[in-house]
Amino acid sequence: MKNTTNSFLCLGYWPSAESFGFNTDILATNPINLSVVLGVLVFFGKGVLSDLLDNRKQKILRTIRNSEELREGAIEQLEKAQARLRKVETEADRFRLNGYSEIEREKLNLINSIYTTLEQLENYKNEAIHFEQQRVINQVRQRVLQQALQGALGTLNSCLNNELHLRTVSANIGMFGTMKEKITD
Questions:
Q1: Residue 141 forms part of a structural domain
Q2: pLDDT one digit per residue (tens) for the chain, 185 residues
Q3: Could you tell me the CA-to-CA distances from 177 to 127, 167, 181 in Å, in that order?
Q4: Which family does the UniProt entry place this protein in (predicted)?
Q5: Considering its fold, how many domains does the chain have in total?
Q6: Structural domain boundaries, residue 134
């Protein structure tokens, strides 16, 4: 009983040992070969493939966890930075307001100080002018007095003779004597 078709399509027929050999029918042998290769790959490669997939899964999960931690850290830093920014802006506004009022206060103080200084300078100027006027007036008085004395001496020297001189001295002594009596009384 020999089958001339050499086909595996008949399930009830198994070729005998005499017909053992290579089957060159590509359509019949490829699905069988592929299923055997795939079966061997699945059986032996299942552990390696699952290990590779598990390692890859663990790396992805670690990366996701690290990313989440970094994200949370970045959010915390952002919140801290925003809080610091609000604080600095508040301080800047306070300094700006205080600075403006301080500038206005310093400006008014400076203006008042300048007015005070100008008044003091005006007073010093007036005192200096008054002092110079008094000094000049005293100098003029001294010169006038000196000139009057020189004129009087000149007049007296020209008009005065010995007799007139003796009478004047006697009259002054007499006045002095009467004044002395009045004082002692």
A1: yes
A2: 444 444 444 444 455 545 666 666 766 677 777 888 888 887 887 888 788 889 999 999 999 999 999 999 999 999 999 999 999 999 888 888 877 888 888 889 999 999 999 999 999 999 999 999 999 999 999 999 899 888 888 877 777 677 777 888 888 888 877 776 777 76
A3: 48, 15, 6
A4: Belongs to the ATPase B chain family.
A5: 1
A6: 32-150
Residue 9 located in a structural domain? no
Is the residue at 5 inside a domain? Answer: no
For 119-142, the three-class secondary structure string (H helix, E strand, C coil) is HHHHHHHHHHHHHHHHHHHHHHHH
Place of tokens 């009830």: 12
Question: What predicted TM-score, i.e. pTM, was given to this entire model?
Answer: 0.35
Is residue 175 in some structural domain? no
